[in-house]
From TrEMBL:
It comes from the Eukaryota. Residues 1-21, 113-168 are annotated as: Disordered. Residues 139-168 have a biased composition (Basic and acidic residues). This is Uncharacterized protein. Residues 1-10 have a biased composition (Low complexity).
């Protein structure tokens, strides 16, 4: 009876492992499909999604299971944030995950800083352009007003000359 119980429990563990493996495989195929959709039309060339692409595009979260799943895929050794199986020890894993999260936060802060700096530069350029545009408009308006004033003065002079001719 004991052997039957053990085989039952081991077979249920095997089923769980197979089920987990099936879920992981399904998840991975869905992620690859989504990444290929994001790539858009590539014409006659094949759409190739590597582990590097998956990790680089999904670097806003950390999940050890996902990284373990991607570990064997071609190209994963070229990933910067990639954590190899050798360095995934219980104590080191939590340390590595915290370090990875810290690096991700720093990366986001740097990106936000760059975006803020770029927005400031764009605003400065726009204000300079607006100021120059305003100066040009003012110069055109002044020139037009000067021409109108000169024309009006000439007309007034002609009227005075005619009036004087009539009087004389």
């Amino acid at each position: 009876q004991r052997t039957t119980k053990n085989t039952d429990s081991s077979s249920s563990k095997d089923k769980d492992n197979n089920n987990t493996y099936a879920q992981e495989t399904l998840w991975l195929s869905q992620v690859v499909r989504k990444e290929k959709l994001k790539m858009g039309s590539t014409g006659p060339r094949k759409k190739i999604v590597t582990a590097t692409d998956l990790l680089e595009r999904n670097n806003t979260f950390f999940d050890g299971d996902i990284e373990a799943l991607l570990e064997g895929l071609p190209g994963s050794e070229f990933c910067e944030q990639y954590i190899f199986q050798a360095s995934r020890v219980h104590g080191a894993a939590s340390m590595m995950s915290q370090q990875w999260i810290h690096e991700a936060k720093l990366r986001q802060e740097r990106m936000a800083e760059r975006a803020k700096k770029k927005a400031g530069q764009v605003a400065k350029i726009k204000s300079d352009q607006q100021r120059k545009k305003e100066q040009k408009r003012k110069a055109r308006d002044d020139e037009r007003d000067a021409r109108k004033k000169q024309k009006q003065e000439e007309l007034d002079d002609k009227k005075k000359a005619r009036a004087e001719e009539r009087m004389a």
